[in-house]
UniProtKB/TrEMBL annotation:
<protein>
    <submittedName>
        <fullName>Protein-tyrosine phosphatase</fullName>
        <ecNumber>3.1.3.48</ecNumber>
    </submittedName>
</protein>
<dbReference type="GO" id="GO:0004725">
    <property type="term" value="F:protein tyrosine phosphatase activity"/>
</dbReference>
<dbReference type="Pfam" id="PF01451">
    <property type="entry name" value="LMWPc"/>
</dbReference>
<dbReference type="InterPro" id="IPR023485">
    <property type="entry name" value="Ptyr_pPase"/>
</dbReference>
<feature type="domain" description="Phosphotyrosine protein phosphatase I">
    <location>
        <begin position="1"/>
        <end position="179"/>
    </location>
</feature>
<keyword id="KW-0378">Hydrolase</keyword>
<dbReference type="InterPro" id="IPR050438">
    <property type="entry name" value="LMW_PTPase"/>
</dbReference>
<dbReference type="InterPro" id="IPR036196">
    <property type="entry name" value="Ptyr_pPase_sf"/>
</dbReference>
Length: 187
C-alpha cells in the first residue's frame, strides 16, 4: 500500500508505477490517503505523468486510509516520514512494515537480498520477504537527512512541481522494483 495525504497526486502515481513495474509478479498494489479527498479522481498532473509513461490513470478513486486496511497489507510505503508517523499512530503494528518510500529504496538497494532468506517465514508473501530483507539493512544504511527525504507534494502546484515529484519517484522506485524481482527469483 502506498500512502500520502490526499491520495490524489503522489500515492496514486506511485501505486500505478509500482503496479506496472511488478505486473509480472503476484503483487497487489493499492493506495490511500491520511486525509484523503475521498471519491476524487487522480489529479491531472499525476495522470499526465502516467500517460507519458504509457500507464493508465483510468478508474482511480481516492480512499481514506483506515487501520483495517493497514492490517491487511505486508508493506506500506509512504510519501514522507510524516506519513510514516501517521500510519504508525493509526495502526501501531504497522510500524514493523511501514517505510518512507525513499528510505525503503535505500534499504533494499543495500540489503544482501540473496543471503537473508533464513529470516523469512516459509509462507511469507514476496512483499513480506522484501520487507524483512529491507529490515536486515537497518543499521547498515545511513538515514537521509531531513531535507533530502520525502516526495514533494504537487497538489494544486504547477506542472514543474509535478515533474519534480516524478523525478524524485523515478530516483527511488526502480530500486524497489528491481529488489522485488530479485526476491521473486530467489524464492
Amino acid at each position: 500500500m502506498v500512502v500520502c495525504t490526499g491520495n490524489v497526486c503522489r500515492s496514486p502515481y506511485i501505486e500505478r508505477l509500482l503496479a506496472d513495474g511488478l505486473r509480472d509478479l503476484d503483487v497487489e498494489v493499492s493506495s490511500a490517503g491520511t486525509h484523503a479527498l475521498t471519491g476524487r479522481p487522480m489529479e491531472p498532473g499525476s495522470a499526465r505523468l502516467l500517460q507519458e509513461a504509457g500507464i493508465s490513470a483510468d478508474g482511480f478513486v481516492a480512499r481514506q486510509l483506515t487501520a483495517a486496511m493497514l492490517r491487511e497489507v505486508d508493506l506500506v510505503l509512504t510519501a514522507t516520514r510524516e506519513h510514516r508517523r501517521e500510519v504508525a499512530q493509526l495502526e501501531p503494528k504497522a510500524l514493523r512494515y511501514v517505510h518512507a518510500v525513499d528510505d525503503f529504496s535505500d534499504l533494499v538497494a543495500a540489503a544482501e537480498l540473496q543471503h537473508e532468506s533464513f529470516l523469512e517465514p516459509a509462507a511469507a508473501s514476496l512483499v513480506a520477504k522484501l520487507a524483512i530483507r529491507a529490515q536486515s539493512a537497518r543499521g547498515e544504511v545511513a538515514a537521509r537527512l531531513a531535507d533530502a527525504s520525502g516526495i514533494v507534494d504537487p497538489f494544486r502546484q504547477s506542472d514543474e512541481v509535478f515533474d519534480t515529484m516524478a523525478q524524485q519517484v523515478g530516483a527511488v522506485l526502480p530500486k524497489i522494483v528491481q529488489a522485488a524481482h530479485e526476491v521473486a527469483r530467489s524464492r
